[in-house]
Each structure stands twice: as structure tokens, then as C-alpha cells.
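Input record, target 12 of the design panel.
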């Protein structure tokens, strides 16, 4: 099984298909794993896009059911995850890439655009998560109950006090919009974006559509799209067309 290692961090990943690189960030919040696509995701991009792209996906660092591990970087939680993602692409010798992110992958894509926008050719945000004012501590509460205890059980070096500090830094102290960037930053983004909005509590429709309205080069899929297999298939094809349209043309092609 392939692992990328950097210092104390060890990231499990899968690399399937061929073609231009497509990084995929699974949903599931801090429990994000590749295996989660079989139970949580509306579709599995490693399967549906492996004939179109070189699809690269990793378990999130410290997802209790995953195989990736590393320190809890309390002062820079989002950037630490971006380090893992960009470091993996460096490890594989990949410069520019496409990216598709589900749920927590939305804020993570924004952070990748902030840190390495020159490397992200285009991005698809599928059911992206965001801040909902009527549920301001949603992500803290979900993770202090559903992520922290199993992580502490798996990792004796991690305590619930550390989990509290990490979640406070990651969510509570950034309780606005998409957590990782400002609205002014999104206004500055020229990278092509595809937004597939959702409207469950953790995936607010209003935030997804606000991103679509602020970004300079954004489009949206149909909504709702997860209600029937026909609609899911339509969005899968929309995303394929979008990603293919922005794939760099090979020299001499």
C-alpha cells in the first residue's frame, strides 16, 4: 500500500487511472477517507473518472478509520492538511493538477487556491461545507463527539484537551463563510470553479451559491442533484465536461 511520509506525518493514498492529474478530497469531515466513498459519497470519483484522469486520493490525516497519521497542528489546522495534499503531489512529481473536493473538500480547495493557486488548474466543489449562522457550533460539536473520542482511543498521545484546542482553532475561531478564506479572496479567484450545491445543515446552499456569485469564473450544477440516480449521473457528466474543458492542452496536440 502506498504511503507518503514527511517527518512525523504518514499519508495513505491511492493513485489510479492515467491522464492529467485529478486530486480528489473525500467528504466526511475530519473522518474523511477513501473508503468513505463506498458509504458516504454520492459517487466514487476514483471509479467514474479513472478512464479520464490520473486520480489521486488520500485518507485525511488523523481520520480515525483511515490510515494517515500526523501531529495535531493546533495553530495551523487547515494549512497542515494543505501541506499533506501539496506534499503528496510533490512526492508524485506533479506540478499542476485539477481538484475535486466533497464536503470538507470545499474549504480545503479554497485553502489550496490561497496557498498554491498557480498549481490548481480548475476545481470542482461537490456539496461543499460552510458556516451556517443558525448552527454556529455545528462542526465543533460534531467533531468533539464523533471525531475526538475515537482518535484519542487510537492515539494515546492525543488528549481531548488537544482536540478541543484543535477544533476551536479550526472552526470556532474562524466561524464565518468557508472557514479558510475571506469573501474578498474568493472575489480575486480567477481559477475556474464548478459548484455542486447541497443544503443539509453542514453544507449550506447559501454559502455555496455565494461562492459561485463571488468568484470570477464559476458555474453551478443542477440543484437538487443527489435526489435521484439520474441527477447524480447528470452531475458526474457535468463535472467530467468541466474538468476536461480546463485540462491543459499538451504541446503539439
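The sequence produced for target 12 reads:
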Amino acid at each position: 500500500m502506498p504511503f507518503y511520509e514527511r517527518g512525523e506525518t504518514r499519508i495513505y493514498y491511492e493513485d489510479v487511472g492515467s491522464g492529467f492529474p485529478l486530486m480528489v478530497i473525500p467528504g466526511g469531515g475530519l473522518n474523511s477517507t477513501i473508503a468513505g466513498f463506498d458509504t458516504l459519497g454520492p459517487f466514487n470519483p476514483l471509479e467514474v473518472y479513472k478512464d479520464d484522469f490520473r486520480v489521486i486520493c488520500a485518507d485525511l490525516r488523523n481520520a480515525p478509520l483511515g490510515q494517515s497519521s500526523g501531529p495535531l497542528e493546533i495553530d495551523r489546522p487547515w494549512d497542515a492538511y494543505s501541506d499533506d495534499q501539496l506534499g503528496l503531489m510533490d512526492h508524485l512529481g506533479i506540478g499542476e493538477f485539477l481538484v475535486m473536493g466533497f464536503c470538507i473538500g470545499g474549504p480545503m480547495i479554497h485553502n489550496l487556491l490561497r496557498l498554491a493557486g498557480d498549481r490548481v488548474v480548475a476545481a470542482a466543489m461537490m456539496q461543499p461545507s460552510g458556516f451556517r449562522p443558525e448552527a454556529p457550533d455545528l462542526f465543533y460539536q460534531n467533531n468533539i463527539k464523533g471525531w475526538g473520542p475515537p482518535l484519542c482511543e487510537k492515539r494515546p498521545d492525543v488528549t481531548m484537551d488537544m482536540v478541543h484546542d484543535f477544533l476551536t482553532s479550526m472552526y470556532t475561531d474562524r466561524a464565518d463563510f468557508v472557514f479558510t478564506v475571506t469573501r474578498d479572496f474568493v472575489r480575486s479567484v480567477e481559477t475556474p470553479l464548478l459548484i455542486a450545491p447541497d443544503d443539509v445543515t453542514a453544507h449550506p446552499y447559501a454559502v455555496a451559491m455565494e461562492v459561485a456569485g463571488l468568484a470570477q469564473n464559476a458555474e453551478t450544477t443542477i440543484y437538487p442533484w443527489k435526489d435521484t440516480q439520474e441527477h447524480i449521473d447528470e452531475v458526474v457528466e457535468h463535472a467530467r465536461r468541466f474538468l476536461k474543458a480546463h485540462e491543459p492542452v499538451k504541446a503539439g496536440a
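The mean pLDDT is 96.
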